Amino acid sequence: MKKYTVINTPVHNIDGIAKITGRAKYTFDITLPRMLHGKILRSSYPHAEILDIDTSKAERLRGVKAVVTGKDTLGKKQGIWRRFKELCDEEILAGNKVRYIGEPVAAVAAIDEDTAEEALDLIEVKYNPLPAVFEPLEAIKEGAPQLHDQAERNINVTRHIEWGDVDEGFKKADYVREDWFRCSSQAHVCMETHCAVADYTPEGKLTVYTSTQSHYYIKVLLAEILGLRENDVRVISRYTGGGFGSKFELDSAQFCSSLLSMKLCQPIKIVLTREEEFTATKRRTPMFYYVRSGIKKDGTFLAKEARVFTEGGAYTAMGATALYLTGFFQSFPYVWPSYRFDGYRVYTNTAPTSAMRGFGAPQATFCAETQIDLIADELGIDPIEIRRKNAMYPGYEVPGQATIQSCGLDQCLDKIDEWIKSRGKLPAHRGIGIAAYGFMSGGIFNWFDTPYAFSSAIVQINIDGKVDLYVGSQDMGQGSNTTMALICAEELGVKFEDIRLHMGDTENCPVDLGAWGSRETLMQGNAVKMAASKAKQQILEFAVAKLTPNIVYDLDIKDGWIHLIARPERGLSYYDVVKEAIRGKDGQPIIARGHYTPHRKGMISPAYSFGVQAVEADVDPDTGKITLKNCVTAHDCGQVINPLGVKGQLEGAIAMAAGYGFTEDLPMDEGKILNPNLVDYMLLRATEMPETKVMEVETYEPEGPFGAKEAGEGLTNPTAGALGNAVFHAAGISIKNLPITPEKVLNALKEKEKK
Amino acid sequence: MEKKLLHLTINGEQHELYINPKKLLVEILRDELGLTGTKRGCNTGACGACTVLLDGAAVKSCSILAMQADGAEVTTVEGLAKGSKLTPLQRSFLDHGAFQCGFCASGMLLSATAFLREDPTPKDIKEGIQGNICRCTGYNSILRAIKAVAEGKYKEEGR
Amino acid sequence: MIHDFNYRRATSIKEALSLLEKYKDDYKIICGGQSLLILMRQGLVAPENLIDIKKVKELDYIDYNPKTGLKIGAATTHREIEKSPLIKKNFPVLAEMEKNLASIQTRNWGTIGGNLAHGDPAGDPAPILIALNATVKMASIERDRILPLEDFFIDIFETALEEGELLTEIQVPILPKKTGIAYQKFNIIKNYLGMVSVAASVTLAEDSEKCTEARIVLGAAAAISLRAKEAEQMLIGEKIDAKLLENAGKKASEECDPVSDIHATETYRRVLVRVLTTRVTGKAWEQAKAAH
User: Fold this and answer.
1) Global pTM?
2) B92 inside 8 A of chain A by CB
3) Per-residue pLDDT tens for C95-142?
4) Taking a C-beta distance cutoff of 8 angstroms, is the pair C266, C258 a contact?
5) Cβ of B81 under 8 Å from any chain A Cβ?
6) ipTM
7) Distance from C203 to chain B by nearest Cα, in Å?
C-alpha cells in the first residue's frame, strides 16, 4: 500500500493555468480607475545632509498631482528587527540625511510615467556632501565617517557564538590551517521588479497591492510608519514574480505610493525600473571572512574559529539575521567539538545588504567547504571521507544551539561518492568538486516581535465537499500554494482538486510571517495539517454515528472515502457525509483552525535539511574560462511533498548559486553600482546550465508535516564551494575571492606556474 | 509631434489605434489593450519577458516601436490557447513544472512556440530560449518541456 | 524615457533618401532599432525626426553570384543571414557569426546594416566581414559610393556615413582559392558581452606551402575593429606552424588597444587577443589547407 495518497505525486502547479495563459495578474499588471503613476527621486550622493528640497517647479509641471518628501512623513524610523528599537534605523524617505546612492528623497505622482520622470528633474535638492566610507574594514577605523549616531565605529550588530574550548582544541590539533575569504554581493534579479499600487480612500482605509513575500509584515510596517491602525491597512499579493529574500521588508515603492495616495485619495502605482532594482533595493551581504581550523591527522575535526566583517550598507534591514546565520552555518554540517565565531556587521555608505536566498549560509558554506578540501588535500584524505568522518547525524546536539533530529547527510555522501566513482577518469583540465551543507526550516527567533502564532490556517468544508483552505503563506514561485493544498488534501483525505486555496490578502487570510528562511513548508504546513486534522475529526464524528463500528475501530479518510482503518472496504463517501455533517451543525460549514509556533526547539530552527552537491567543470588553461558540465545533488528534505516543485527549486538554486560562484557580481565605485542592467550583470542563461541530477534521500522529520523539511534555500548553499573545489581539482588552484572569474583563474594559474 | 494611425491584428482580432508614435509595441499591448500577459523585466532588451510573435517570428516587444508593427499579425500569450484547449507546449509546461513565479512564462512560451514552428525537431533546444531569462527554474525544466513536445509526446488537441 | 519625435516612414529607397535630405538637420534612421531604441529609452538620443526604413523591401535581399560574390541588402535581418541556404553554403562562417549574436528575438528584427551603422566596437559582424574583405555601399540623394568596410569605422559609435547618407548594401567578394576563414568570440555568458573577438582569413599558395595572404581582425580590442597588420605580416610569405601562430598571437596582443572595465582588465583582454588570435588563425589555416 502506498505510503501517501496525494503528497509526493507530480501534480500540476495549482496556479499553473493562470500563469501559462497570461491570466495571472501580478501587481505589475494592476490598474485601477483614476490611477496615477509615481516615480522616486533618489540621492546621487553616498553620504550627505539634505539642506533643502524645492519641489515647486515639479509641482507646477502639467500633469503632476503631488510631490512628497521626508517632510510629508511622520518622521518615523522603521525596520524589520522590531524587537530591538535601535536596529529600526531606516526612514525610507530620507529626512535630513542620505546614507547611500539611491536612497529616496522625494516622490512624484503624475498622470503618466513620463511626466513623473520629467518632474523628478525639476526637483531641486540642496545637499551638503559628507565624507563617505565604503568598505567595512575602513568603516571601523578610528576617525572614519559615522553613519548613525548610536553606532560607534559604525558597528551595527555583533554576534558571538561559542562552545567547547577552542584554544585547547588548537593545541591538540596535528594540523592547523587558516584562510581569508572575500564573499561578494549578489542581486536577487526577480523578474518582477519591486512595485506597489496604493489606494487610500476617504474612509481612512489603505489598500496596497504589492509584489511581496510577506503581506503580513508589509501591513504591520506600513500601518506603523503611516500612523494607521493595523487593520485599516489591507495588503494584497495574489501573485509575486520572484522574491528570493528581496521582498519581505517595507520598500520605497510601497511606502511612497502609500504616502502619495493618502495625500490624493487616488490610486498610485510605482514600479521600480530594472536599474532601480539593482541600485536601490537590498542585496546579498558581502563578507570578509577569516577561518581557522584545527584537525587531527586522521581528519577528525577538533576546533574551528571564524571571524567575519560584513558590509552592512547604510541600514540594518535583515542584515543582523544574515550575520547570525552565517556564524551558525559556518559550523555546518559537521560535528565541531569546539567552535568560536565572532561577527561584526558594519555600516557603510552603500546600498543596504540584507536577506538573499541562503541568508549568509552560502557565504559560510563557500568558506568552510573550500577550506575542507584544502585540508583534505594536505592530509591526503579523500574529500568524501573527511566529511563523512565528521558529519552530523540524527540526534546530534549542537551545544547550546540546536538538536538535529532527522539527518540524511551520511546517505547523501554515499550517493555522491557513488556518482563520482561512476565518472571514472576525467579528461584533462576537468575536475569534480563537492560541498556539503545544512540549512534551517524556518527561524525560531521572533525578531519581528509578532504577537501572533508564526503561522495559522483555516479550513472550511462546503456542502459539495470542496474545501476552502485559507493560508497566510506567500507563493513567490517556490510553490507553497501547491504544497499547502497537497498537505491539506492528504490530511483531510480528499483529492487535490477538492482544495480551493485562498491566499495573498490580509483581509481574508490568517497570519503567517511570510516566505523567507525557508519556513513555509514546515510552519505553514504544520498549521494547515492541524486545521485539516481538526476538520477531519468533525466529519469523522458524523461518520462514526452513521457507521456505528465497534469502539475499538478507528476511522480515517483517504481519497474521499471514509472508512474503518482495519476494514477499509467498510465505509462511506466523504461527499455524502459532508452534507449530513453540515445539516447536523445547524447548516454551518465545517470550520477548523490550525496554527504553529516553534517552542523549545533551540536557538535557530525547528528542523534542518541536509545535502551534498558535486559540480563537474572544465577550466580552460589558456583563458581561465570555466564551463559547467554536471551538477549532481543528493539532498534530504525529509518527506517530499511536491516533487516537481522540489526539483524545480533545486535546479533554480543551482543556477543562482553557480552564478554567485563564478559570474555574478556588483562592482562599485565610491558607492555607485557599475552594472545596473541585465547585460552587464551576468546571470546564467539556459546555455550555461549544466546537466542536473537530483537524488532524494528520504528521512522523517518529526517536527515537520508528514516529516517534511525545507527544500528551496539550503540548496543555494553548496554550489559556489563545490564549483571552487572543482576548479581546485581541475587546475590545482584555490580561489577564495568570489566570483571566480576567468581572469582570477588565469592569474592564479600564472602564480602557480611561477612557484 | 503628430499622432499616427496604427492597424494591428492581435490574436486574430483587428485593432485600429491612434497613438503617439514613440509608443513601444509592448506599451500598446499592455497599456492600451489590457493584454497584460506580456511582461516587461528590464529596460535594455535583455530579458525576453516581453517576447511576442510578429508575423510568426519571436521578437522583443519592448524593442519595437508599435508603428513598425503596422499591418502585422501579433500573437501574445493570450492568443495561444483556443478557449480551454491549451497548446501542446502549454500542456507540457504544466506537466514538467516549467515555471515557478510565472513572470517569464509567457515570453518563454512564445519563444518556444516560434522555435518549434520553425524547426519541429531541433538539435539544440537551449538556443530556442537563450534570449529569455528565468531566475526561478534554472531552465532545465523548461528545456525538458520543450524537448517533450519536439519528441512528439504531445499532440494538438482538436481545435 | 523616449522623447517625442515626428515619425516618417519610407517604403522605397528613393523615398528614404528624399526624407533624409528633407530632414537632414535633425533625424535618426530606424530600421531594426535593436541598438537605437535602447539609447532612445535612456534619453541619450532624441531626434526631432525618426525615419523608419523597416518597410523598404528593396533593402532586404541576399544575392549570390559565383563570380562577384555576396550582396546583402542593409535591411536584411541577422536571422535571414543566419538561415540563408546561400550563405550557409558559400559563406558558412557568416551564418555561424550570426548564430552567436545576441538572441533569436534580436536577430529576427535587427538588421546587418543597422548593426554596422551603429559602429559599436564590440559588434559581431564587423571583424568577420573585414576579414572577408567586405565593402559597403552608401547612397544619398546625390550619389552612391562604395567603401571598404575597414575604412567605414572611424571611432567608437562613429562611422563614415555622412548627413543624408544611407547604408544600402554589404558586398562580400568570392574567397580566393585555398583560403580558410574562422571566427571566435570570447564571453562568459554565451552570445552576450563579447569581451574580445578575433576573425581571421588565411590564404595559402597552390602547393599549400607558404601563406600568401592573411587578414587578422580584432573586435572589442580597440575603438574600432582593428586589423592586426603586424601580426598578419609575420605570416605572409612564411610557412605557417604552431610557433609562428603563437608569435602572431603575441604580436596581435601588442598591437591592440583594449580598455579596462568592470568585466576585464586591459591585461586580460590582451591575453584573450593572444590566445584567440593563435586559435582562430590556426583554424583558418587548417581550413585553407583543406580548401581548393
Assistant:
1) 0.97
2) no
3) 999 999 999 999 999 999 999 999 999 999 999 999 999 999 999 999
4) yes
5) yes
6) 0.98
7) 33
